Known about the structure:
The protein has 10 helices and 3 strands.
Amino acid sequence: MPVLRASANRTTSHGLGFGMCTAYRTRQGVPGRIEIIDALRGLALMGILQVNIQSFTWGAGEPLGYLDQPPGALESGVYFFQAAFLEGKFYPIFAFLFGVGIALQTRKLRRLNQGDARAAAAAYRRRLTVLLALGIAHGLLLFSGDVLSAYAICGLAFAAVVPSRLRALVVFTAWCWIAAVLSAFLPVVLVAALGIYEAPDQIPASVVYAHTIYCHAGFFAQIGQRWIDEAWQQVGGILTFWPQVFALIAQRRRLG
């Protein structure tokens, strides 16, 4: 198999809303990587890591973790910086780039299958199935805050409804937003209605238990806890990631 080498003197422009995006072409003329998308994806992952690193020990509780002792000036400053400038700021970027990547993959698969939309869709679903399997393994074995599973499920749902009109997709996305809002506020209302009270500075008992498991228990005990945390992550993640991945719909209309 011949080795494909990138040639920097041939570029192409992609209308991705980022201006002139440079994509290297191989000697056979096949488009290579789009540098600005790779750079933005790396930036988003760096920001996500700074927030998620606490979840390795605290599980599916507060993304920024908890302070078990009264914080000093440095701890308070770092916590404020993460909450103000990192938490929730990089997921939309990553989700949008995921959508753009799917749109570009869809176009490439159609070209490779001589315009056969069904064959391209089947290949696309196979890729997402592999992504889903990797996400489940990652979420259960390594990190309960996995987002690959949620993205894969959103992508498979998109593949199922993509023949629909844009209006139907917008309505579907709106319902996802409503469900996401309800999933966020209903537990609060339920806790208030049942009269359950925890002091503001008190760490929830379930979070303390998860923290103990992740810090002191063995690997297989951690897997059991990750099952629970992964389930909560996916329930909330799918509902909130779908509207963010909605960008791929617009990109498909533009690129497809």
